Amino acid sequence: MIRCALKSIGQMSEGQWERAFPDEESCIYWLVAGRWPDQKRCPRCSSDLVFPASLYEYRWRCFGCAPDLGHAFDYRSGTIFEDSPHPLRLWFKALHRELTGRSERPDACEQAMRSSLREAMRELEFRSMVAKPGPVPPRKWEQQEAEGIDNAEQPSCPDAALSADLLR
């Protein structure tokens, strides 16, 4: 198994991708190293009270969210790969083709994977936009309060005017 430095899948050429991910084990290593570069954390509660499960290399138990028996999770938990029966290498191949724009007549399975990947990328982009909103311009009434203008008689929005008319 070749363990290479982490590099974005979209930045790899076809040959680099084949060398970086020759088997399932290298794909798992890349995913684990990318998700948890410093320390394993539970995907459910983000706790660091995580310990390896006894028999499985890429399976852990979290005692932060389930103190008595521990919540079991693996490298796929909390990802779009979680409930998929397909190997991680096949998912990575679809991701590589999606990010690089290469497509050699994908079969139905790869088309479904690429569709799931596009949906996940859109959701991730949406989450990042929501998580980091741009500066919000001040509202008209906030500006007027800052300038000392009293608008108690005039409502600042059309719905307030409608409500005032209905109450009369």
Characteristic key phrases:
single chain, 168 residues, 3-stranded antiparallel β-sheet
What does this structure look like?
The chain has a domain at 39-77. β1 and β2 (59-62) form a beta hairpin. α3 crosses α4. By secondary structure, it is mostly helical. Helices cover 44% and strands 7% of the residues.
Which helices and strands appear, and what pairs or packs with what?
Blueprint: H1 14-20, H2 24-35, E1 50-52, E2 59-62, E3 71-74, H3 88-100, H4 108-131, H5 140-147, H6 158-167
Antiparallel strand pairs: 1-2, 2-3
In short:
With 168 residues, this protein is mostly helical.
Quaternary state of the chains: single chain
Global Rg = 25 Å
Class derived from helix and strand content: mainly alpha
Please summarize the sheet with the most strands.
Answer: 3 strands, antiparallel
Approximate helicity band? 40-55%
